[in-house]
Amino acid sequence: MGVAATYGAAGAQMRTGAIGATLTAAIAPQALAPALSALALQTSLQLIYESRLVAGQRSKGVPAGLSVPEALRRLLRGTGLDFEFLNARTVRLVERAPSPPPRAAHSRVIRQSGPPIGTLQEVIVTAEKRAEDLGTVPINVSVLSGQAMAELGVSRMREIAEITPGIEFKSSSQWGPAILTDLTVRGITSTATINGTKSSLGSATTGVYIDDIPITMPQSSFSNPYPVTFDLARVEVLRGPQGTLFGGRAEGGAVRFITTEPSTTAFGGLTGGEASATDRGGPSYQADAAAGGPLIEGLLGARASVFLRRDGGYIDRVDPLTGAKVEAASNRSATTAVRLALLIEPGASIRVTPSFMYQSMDLHDSPSFFVD
User: Fold this and answer.
1) What values do phi and psi take at 273, rounded to 5?
2) Which of 38-42, 89-93, 187-191 has the lowest mean pLDDT?
3) Cβ neighbours, 10 Å, residue 105
4) Which listed residue, of 99, 133, 160, 328, carries a Cα 20 to 30 Å from 69's Cα?
């Protein structure tokens, strides 16, 4: 990195102060470096700049009679450079700072018509059991909106763990993936001794909640149920001990699935579907729909959602002795989820939200296999 300083002697027709000086002669269009030298000779300025800033740059020239600041502005126009006076006779050239982007408007995220992922938004969370802006919550929280999960193709707990720092979603080495699963936050887990053998079948250390309802298995960190992500407002991942707010089995953290509430003022809904095929495996498809709105304006609202998913298998069951195929695509699975929720608002400060949720996952066979 080279640093160049250019200066010149005062001309006969100069006024006393360099800042108050005016150009006595025009500076013709030319390369920026000699144009700056001509300005310094006329005004008795000392110019300080990194040589890389003017390399390859050109100036369109300036007429006579301009003040020093105006002459500098014209010489540097279109170069991406700016200037600052260090004292009455010393000027430093710097790169112009980029203009800040326009401030994004605050908006709630809705899956069917929200802004694209990456847009700055106001994120409201209930990590401390009251609605707050995410930036004011004194907890290490990661938030995935329903829209973001839909655009990323996230539909289950394993995929949430893959894109959320600090979460580990592991399976039992004995039973294989999708049979017994363990969710840990920041590596905190529990162990128990069973028949003299150390096992991870102790009480869970990560609490799992649908809204404020715990669904964690009481005596095991494995085989916890995890809801599908369809028709969720967001998923909140709280890292660190949450025992004060959520009680036991949340020493490592908590994962909250926040459902979409009904509305007593507006109708809304969404539908979706997908299909895929696996080479030498079975077909997969998904269909889902949700709709809701006011039943009694301002007093009673309802929302219903249905989720159906079928994943085709890709592992064949074979006879280990003869090698004959016993069953094709045996690790296929099916998931069904139904939810019905009500919102009752008898007063400005009273909200009652009863809901019914049913979810079933049928895993026909484990995807584990023996290489031999």
Assistant:
1) -170, 155
2) 187-191
3) 10
4) 99
Cα–Cα distance for residue pair 284/142, rounded to 1 Å: 30
Can you give the pLDDT at residue 309? Answer: 93
| 315 in Cβ contact with 331 (< 8 Å) | yes
Evaluate whether 258 touches 143 at the Cβ level (below 8 Å).
no
Cα torsion 16, 18, 21, 24 to 10°: value is: 100
Q: Where are the alpha helices (DSSP H) in the chain?
A: 32-43, 51-54, 68-75, 146-152, 157-163, 243-246
Half-sphere exposure of 136 (CA within 13 A, CB side): 10
CB 298 within 8 A of CB 317: no
337 within 8 A of 227, measured Cβ to Cβ: yes
Cross-strand pairs, 34: none
CA–CA dist 59, 34 (Å, integer): 9
Inter-residue contact 60 to 77 (CB < 8 Å): yes
* Contact between 35 and 61 (Cβ < 8 Å): yes
List the alpha helices (DSSP H) in 133-247.
146-152, 157-163, 243-246
Q: Give the bridge partners for 236, in sequence order.
A: 143, 256
Q: Give yes or no for a contact between 241 and 249, defined as CB atoms under 8 angstroms apart.
A: no
Mean pLDDT of all residues belonging to the chain:
76
